[in-house]
DNA sequence: GATAAGTAGTTGAAGGTTCAACGTCTTGGC
DNA sequence: GCCAAGACGTTGAACCTTCAACTACTTATC
């Protein structure tokens, strides 16, 4: 970090620095590892999340925009991704009768099979890579901390 | 999440689920927000980290591979990124005399100016978006948790 | 000291993501 | 009803990342 003191910047002290660095490194590695673990099932994390969201939805279908929101994807990104997932046969699109601008993403039986076969391994991987490092108390306090953070971001989401 | 019980998958219980979801959502938003905050200085997070690492190195220069490791970038990605950063005038490359395969990434005065002007705002943004949500004790326990996670990933880094 | 194996770094192609612009439809105000 | 403003979703272009292949050099082994 360069030093400078135009308005006396308030650099991170060693404790803060360590917290921040360990967080940033571990969180990247975590995402990487989860993605790798999923690769065996030919799924990426975003694809998995889209399928997981659909699998929980009534009739396994959901409006594009809702899906984008849940999956933390921009509309555009979801749209591009859907083209690929549709080609893979996991989902299809269906016009929405009540709003003619809208579409439903609908999970196909093949998509269902894909997520059913990937889910146990993915959950296992979330445990192994994340939850297993946390005691019950850690889990509770992480939840508090990150909910607070999440709350703070509410309203300025950049994936619309 | 679909249900299935081939080998009785051990789904997440509500506490685990909440910890996991809040973590994954907040951590994505955090990265997004930090990137946005940096945008005003025409830097992305990876660029910032590369410059920050260089600015701390002796002579503000560093071997490409070391830089890649610190910045959590693959060699290839760093190489591509360097081309851009070089064009922007922040860094240049310099052959390594002792190992003729190797290169140094060297920070230019312009690069120094860029990071000096971005750093205070970035640090402020790390505080605002992350550290401010954490008490001293939270910081310490996060550090313990994520160091442990980081440790577990050691050796299977996919950015070589 | 020759050779095999490994390391440093780059490259191009394939694929993913973002951004701004667009067409289509809905909604609210008059 | 009409019109402006907004929401839904898609598109293409620009950009970024990954992956595998490659060159050039170094190291280890014999």
Relative helix content of chain A: 55-70%
Largest sheet of chain A: 3 strands, antiparallel
Give the structural class of chain A.
mainly alpha
Q: What is the terminal-to-terminal distance of chain A?
A: 33 Å
What is the strand and helix layout of this fold?
The structure is a homodimer of 160-residue chains.
Chain A: H1 14-39, H2 45-56, E1 61-63, H3 64-70, H4 75-87, E2 91-95, E3 103-107, H5 109-129, H6 136-153
Antiparallel strand pairs in A: 1-3, 2-3
Helix pairs in contact in A: 1-5, 2-5, 3-4
Chain A binds a DNA duplex (30 and 30 nucleotides) through helix 3 and helix 4.
Q: In words, what does this structure look like?
A:
- Two copies of one chain form a homodimer.
- Chain A is mostly helical and 160 residues long.
- The first copy, chain A, is 61% helix and 8% strand.
- Chain A has six helices and three strands; from the N terminus they run ααβααββαα.
- The first copy, chain A, has a three-stranded antiparallel sheet with strand order 1-3-2.
- In chain A, β2 and β3 (103-107) form a beta hairpin.
- The longest helix of chain A is centred in the N-terminal third of the chain and has 26 residues, at 14-39.
- The model of chain A has no long low-confidence stretch (mean pLDDT 91).
- Chain A binds a DNA duplex (30 and 30 nucleotides) through α3 and α4.
